Amino acid sequence: MTDKPFHPLPSAYHEFERFDHEDSYIGEVMEIPDYYHALSKETLTDHLEIFKSEVIELYKSFQHKTGTLSGTPNNGKGKTLYELFQILTDQLSSGVPATECMDTIGMEFFEDYPLTKSFPHAIMLLVCADLLKKHGLEYKAWPLLLEFKSLEQKLFEEALAQASENLSLIKKEAGSTSQARYVHLKYFFIELLSQKAPDEGWGTHGDTVRKLTSDVIKLHQQSPQHASKFRLVDKEIEEDSANKGRGFVETKLINWLKKDKEVREAFYANSSRPPNRPRQSQS
What we know:
Layout: E1 12-21, E2 24-33, H1 35-40, H2 44-61, H3 81-93, H4 98-109, H5 119-134, H6 138-181, H7 183-195, H8 205-221, H9 224-227, H10 246-259, H11 261-269
Antiparallel strand pairs: 1-2
Protein backbone atom coordinates (compact mmCIF):
# COMPACT_ATOMS: atom_id res chain seq x y z
CA MET A 1 0.00 0.00 0.00
CA THR A 2 1.48 3.31 -1.10
CA ASP A 3 1.22 6.49 0.91
CA LYS A 4 -0.94 9.32 -0.46
CA PRO A 5 1.11 12.06 -2.10
CA PHE A 6 1.73 15.07 0.09
CA HIS A 7 -0.70 17.96 -0.54
CA PRO A 8 1.14 21.24 0.14
CA LEU A 9 -2.00 23.34 0.59
CA PRO A 10 -3.56 23.31 4.09
CA SER A 11 -7.12 21.96 4.06
CA ALA A 12 -8.55 24.51 6.52
CA TYR A 13 -7.92 27.75 8.35
CA HIS A 14 -9.04 28.97 11.77
CA GLU A 15 -10.98 31.99 12.92
CA PHE A 16 -11.87 33.13 16.43
CA GLU A 17 -15.61 33.82 16.57
CA ARG A 18 -16.78 36.22 19.33
CA PHE A 19 -20.40 36.79 20.26
CA ASP A 20 -22.47 38.21 23.13
CA HIS A 21 -23.72 35.92 25.83
CA GLU A 22 -25.50 37.32 28.93
CA ASP A 23 -23.70 40.69 28.79
CA SER A 24 -20.32 39.09 28.32
CA TYR A 25 -18.21 38.02 25.37
CA ILE A 26 -17.39 34.40 24.72
CA GLY A 27 -15.49 32.98 21.82
CA GLU A 28 -14.83 29.84 19.89
CA VAL A 29 -12.15 28.84 17.42
CA MET A 30 -13.82 27.84 14.15
CA GLU A 31 -12.17 25.55 11.61
CA ILE A 32 -13.17 26.62 8.11
CA PRO A 33 -12.42 24.61 4.94
CA ASP A 34 -9.90 26.41 2.76
CA TYR A 35 -11.34 27.40 -0.63
CA TYR A 36 -8.05 27.06 -2.49
CA HIS A 37 -7.41 23.58 -1.13
CA ALA A 38 -10.93 22.48 -2.16
CA LEU A 39 -10.49 23.98 -5.61
CA SER A 40 -7.17 22.19 -6.08
CA LYS A 41 -8.84 18.83 -5.46
CA GLU A 42 -11.23 19.19 -8.41
CA THR A 43 -10.24 16.73 -11.12
CA LEU A 44 -9.88 17.13 -14.84
CA THR A 45 -12.99 14.98 -15.23
CA ASP A 46 -14.95 17.38 -12.99
CA HIS A 47 -14.01 20.34 -15.14
CA LEU A 48 -14.75 18.52 -18.39
CA GLU A 49 -18.26 17.60 -17.28
CA ILE A 50 -18.95 21.12 -16.02
CA PHE A 51 -17.76 22.69 -19.28
CA LYS A 52 -19.71 20.19 -21.43
CA SER A 53 -22.89 20.98 -19.52
CA GLU A 54 -22.18 24.68 -19.90
CA VAL A 55 -21.87 24.43 -23.68
CA ILE A 56 -25.08 22.39 -23.93
CA GLU A 57 -27.05 24.89 -21.82
CA LEU A 58 -25.77 27.78 -23.92
CA TYR A 59 -26.62 25.89 -27.09
CA LYS A 60 -30.18 25.33 -25.87
CA SER A 61 -30.51 29.04 -25.09
CA PHE A 62 -30.26 30.14 -28.73
CA GLN A 63 -32.00 27.29 -30.53
CA HIS A 64 -34.85 28.16 -32.82
CA LYS A 65 -38.44 28.06 -31.58
CA THR A 66 -38.96 24.45 -32.75
CA GLY A 67 -39.54 22.10 -29.83
CA THR A 68 -36.20 20.39 -29.34
CA LEU A 69 -35.24 18.09 -26.53
CA SER A 70 -32.49 18.90 -24.04
CA GLY A 71 -29.24 19.31 -25.90
CA THR A 72 -30.74 18.35 -29.26
CA PRO A 73 -29.43 20.42 -32.20
CA ASN A 74 -31.95 21.97 -34.57
CA ASN A 75 -30.28 20.29 -37.56
CA GLY A 76 -32.85 17.60 -38.35
CA LYS A 77 -30.48 14.77 -37.48
CA GLY A 78 -31.65 14.28 -33.92
CA LYS A 79 -28.17 14.06 -32.39
CA THR A 80 -27.55 15.51 -28.96
CA LEU A 81 -24.35 17.37 -28.23
CA TYR A 82 -23.33 14.54 -25.90
CA GLU A 83 -23.61 12.19 -28.88
CA LEU A 84 -21.62 14.69 -30.91
CA PHE A 85 -18.81 14.54 -28.33
CA GLN A 86 -18.65 10.76 -28.75
CA ILE A 87 -18.75 10.94 -32.55
CA LEU A 88 -15.88 13.42 -32.57
CA THR A 89 -13.90 11.31 -30.11
CA ASP A 90 -14.30 8.29 -32.40
CA GLN A 91 -13.21 10.33 -35.41
CA LEU A 92 -10.11 11.61 -33.61
CA SER A 93 -9.27 8.09 -32.45
CA SER A 94 -9.45 6.87 -36.04
CA GLY A 95 -6.94 9.49 -37.19
CA VAL A 96 -9.13 12.31 -38.47
CA PRO A 97 -7.39 15.66 -37.71
CA ALA A 98 -9.15 17.81 -35.13
CA THR A 99 -9.36 20.75 -37.55
CA GLU A 100 -11.35 18.66 -40.04
CA CYS A 101 -13.67 17.54 -37.24
CA MET A 102 -14.21 21.16 -36.26
CA ASP A 103 -15.22 22.06 -39.81
CA THR A 104 -17.82 19.29 -39.67
CA ILE A 105 -19.28 20.72 -36.46
CA GLY A 106 -19.56 24.14 -38.02
CA MET A 107 -21.38 22.89 -41.10
CA GLU A 108 -23.71 20.35 -39.50
CA PHE A 109 -24.53 21.86 -36.11
CA PHE A 110 -24.00 25.61 -36.29
CA GLU A 111 -24.75 26.50 -39.89
CA ASP A 112 -28.11 27.99 -38.83
CA TYR A 113 -26.47 30.06 -36.09
CA PRO A 114 -24.01 32.45 -37.81
CA LEU A 115 -23.34 34.49 -34.65
CA THR A 116 -21.85 31.53 -32.74
CA LYS A 117 -18.48 31.23 -34.44
CA SER A 118 -16.59 30.27 -31.26
CA PHE A 119 -18.70 27.22 -30.42
CA PRO A 120 -17.11 24.69 -32.83
CA HIS A 121 -13.65 25.63 -31.53
CA ALA A 122 -14.81 25.37 -27.90
CA ILE A 123 -16.34 21.93 -28.46
CA MET A 124 -13.19 20.64 -30.12
CA LEU A 125 -11.10 21.84 -27.18
CA LEU A 126 -13.26 19.77 -24.82
CA VAL A 127 -13.21 16.69 -27.05
CA CYS A 128 -9.44 16.83 -27.48
CA ALA A 129 -8.90 17.32 -23.73
CA ASP A 130 -11.18 14.38 -22.96
CA LEU A 131 -9.30 12.12 -25.38
CA LEU A 132 -5.93 13.13 -23.93
CA LYS A 133 -7.21 12.36 -20.43
CA LYS A 134 -8.36 8.90 -21.52
CA HIS A 135 -4.85 8.22 -22.80
CA GLY A 136 -3.29 9.23 -19.48
CA LEU A 137 -2.03 12.58 -20.75
CA GLU A 138 -3.78 14.86 -18.29
CA TYR A 139 -0.89 17.32 -18.19
CA LYS A 140 -1.42 17.86 -21.94
CA ALA A 141 -5.19 18.24 -21.52
CA TRP A 142 -5.07 21.09 -18.99
CA PRO A 143 -3.79 23.72 -21.49
CA LEU A 144 -6.80 22.94 -23.71
CA LEU A 145 -9.15 23.57 -20.80
CA LEU A 146 -7.38 26.85 -20.10
CA GLU A 147 -7.99 27.83 -23.72
CA PHE A 148 -11.67 26.88 -23.32
CA LYS A 149 -11.88 28.94 -20.14
CA SER A 150 -10.58 31.98 -22.01
CA LEU A 151 -13.50 31.60 -24.46
CA GLU A 152 -16.25 31.46 -21.83
CA GLN A 153 -17.19 35.13 -21.93
CA LYS A 154 -17.21 35.11 -25.72
CA LEU A 155 -19.47 32.03 -25.74
CA PHE A 156 -21.94 33.77 -23.44
CA GLU A 157 -21.93 36.91 -25.60
CA GLU A 158 -22.41 34.95 -28.83
CA ALA A 159 -25.22 32.87 -27.34
CA LEU A 160 -26.98 36.05 -26.18
CA ALA A 161 -26.56 37.72 -29.58
CA GLN A 162 -27.86 34.64 -31.42
CA ALA A 163 -30.83 34.28 -29.07
CA SER A 164 -31.69 37.94 -29.64
CA GLU A 165 -31.42 37.49 -33.40
CA ASN A 166 -33.66 34.41 -33.28
CA LEU A 167 -36.26 36.31 -31.24
CA SER A 168 -36.30 39.09 -33.84
CA LEU A 169 -36.86 36.54 -36.59
CA ILE A 170 -39.64 34.86 -34.63
CA LYS A 171 -41.39 38.21 -34.06
CA LYS A 172 -41.03 39.05 -37.74
CA GLU A 173 -42.52 35.70 -38.74
CA ALA A 174 -45.37 36.19 -36.27
CA GLY A 175 -46.04 39.65 -37.66
CA SER A 176 -46.13 38.32 -41.22
CA THR A 177 -48.54 35.56 -40.17
CA SER A 178 -50.80 38.06 -38.43
CA GLN A 179 -50.76 40.39 -41.42
CA ALA A 180 -51.72 37.54 -43.77
CA ARG A 181 -54.54 36.48 -41.42
CA TYR A 182 -56.28 39.87 -41.64
CA VAL A 183 -55.31 41.03 -45.11
CA HIS A 184 -58.79 40.38 -46.52
CA LEU A 185 -60.14 43.09 -44.20
CA LYS A 186 -57.80 45.54 -45.87
CA TYR A 187 -59.14 44.72 -49.32
CA PHE A 188 -62.75 44.91 -48.10
CA PHE A 189 -61.85 48.37 -46.80
CA ILE A 190 -60.28 49.43 -50.11
CA GLU A 191 -63.38 48.27 -51.97
CA LEU A 192 -65.69 50.18 -49.62
CA LEU A 193 -63.60 53.36 -49.85
CA SER A 194 -64.51 53.45 -53.53
CA GLN A 195 -68.07 52.07 -53.44
CA LYS A 196 -69.39 54.11 -50.53
CA ALA A 197 -67.53 57.36 -51.02
CA PRO A 198 -69.84 60.33 -50.40
CA ASP A 199 -70.31 62.91 -53.14
CA GLU A 200 -68.19 65.39 -51.23
CA GLY A 201 -65.47 62.79 -50.66
CA TRP A 202 -64.15 61.25 -47.46
CA GLY A 203 -63.24 63.59 -44.65
CA THR A 204 -60.92 62.73 -41.77
CA HIS A 205 -59.42 59.30 -41.14
CA GLY A 206 -61.40 58.87 -37.93
CA ASP A 207 -64.73 59.81 -39.52
CA THR A 208 -64.10 57.47 -42.47
CA VAL A 209 -63.26 54.54 -40.20
CA ARG A 210 -66.35 55.08 -38.03
CA LYS A 211 -68.58 55.04 -41.11
CA LEU A 212 -67.07 51.91 -42.72
CA THR A 213 -66.19 49.62 -39.78
CA SER A 214 -69.63 47.98 -39.65
CA ASP A 215 -69.53 47.31 -43.40
CA VAL A 216 -66.06 45.71 -43.18
CA ILE A 217 -67.29 43.44 -40.36
CA LYS A 218 -70.41 42.53 -42.34
CA LEU A 219 -68.36 41.53 -45.41
CA HIS A 220 -66.19 39.34 -43.20
CA GLN A 221 -69.26 37.69 -41.62
CA GLN A 222 -70.75 37.01 -45.07
CA SER A 223 -67.58 35.27 -46.30
CA PRO A 224 -67.52 31.58 -45.26
CA GLN A 225 -63.86 31.37 -46.23
CA HIS A 226 -62.84 34.09 -43.79
CA ALA A 227 -65.52 33.81 -41.12
CA SER A 228 -64.46 30.22 -40.45
CA LYS A 229 -60.97 31.39 -39.43
CA PHE A 230 -62.03 33.89 -36.75
CA ARG A 231 -65.22 35.64 -35.65
CA LEU A 232 -65.84 39.36 -35.93
CA VAL A 233 -68.68 40.99 -34.04
CA ASP A 234 -69.98 44.53 -34.53
CA LYS A 235 -69.67 45.61 -30.89
CA GLU A 236 -67.09 46.35 -28.26
CA ILE A 237 -65.79 43.24 -26.48
CA GLU A 238 -63.15 42.35 -23.91
CA GLU A 239 -59.56 42.33 -25.19
CA ASP A 240 -58.98 38.71 -24.12
CA SER A 241 -62.13 37.45 -25.85
CA ALA A 242 -61.79 34.80 -28.53
CA ASN A 243 -63.84 37.09 -30.78
CA LYS A 244 -62.74 40.33 -32.41
CA GLY A 245 -64.84 43.47 -32.01
CA ARG A 246 -65.22 46.96 -33.42
CA GLY A 247 -62.19 48.31 -31.56
CA PHE A 248 -59.93 45.72 -33.15
CA VAL A 249 -61.21 46.47 -36.66
CA GLU A 250 -61.06 50.24 -36.19
CA THR A 251 -57.43 50.02 -35.07
CA LYS A 252 -56.55 47.98 -38.14
CA LEU A 253 -58.28 50.43 -40.48
CA ILE A 254 -56.67 53.49 -38.89
CA ASN A 255 -53.21 51.91 -39.12
CA TRP A 256 -53.72 51.04 -42.77
CA LEU A 257 -54.88 54.60 -43.52
CA LYS A 258 -51.69 55.92 -41.96
CA LYS A 259 -49.15 53.41 -43.24
CA ASP A 260 -50.44 51.21 -46.09
CA LYS A 261 -49.81 52.51 -49.60
CA GLU A 262 -52.79 50.75 -51.24
CA VAL A 263 -55.27 51.93 -48.62
CA ARG A 264 -53.96 55.49 -48.68
CA GLU A 265 -54.24 55.64 -52.48
CA ALA A 266 -57.85 54.40 -52.34
CA PHE A 267 -58.69 56.89 -49.61
CA TYR A 268 -57.18 59.95 -51.28
CA ALA A 269 -58.66 58.99 -54.63
CA ASN A 270 -62.05 59.50 -53.00
CA SER A 271 -61.13 62.16 -50.45
CA SER A 272 -62.49 65.64 -50.14
CA ARG A 273 -58.91 66.90 -50.25
CA PRO A 274 -56.35 64.48 -51.74
CA PRO A 275 -52.75 64.81 -50.60
CA ASN A 276 -50.63 67.54 -52.12
CA ARG A 277 -53.69 69.25 -53.55
CA PRO A 278 -53.19 72.94 -52.72
CA ARG A 279 -55.89 74.83 -50.90
CA GLN A 280 -57.81 77.15 -53.18
CA SER A 281 -57.18 80.73 -52.23
CA GLN A 282 -60.16 82.79 -51.24
CA SER A 283 -60.57 85.93 -53.30
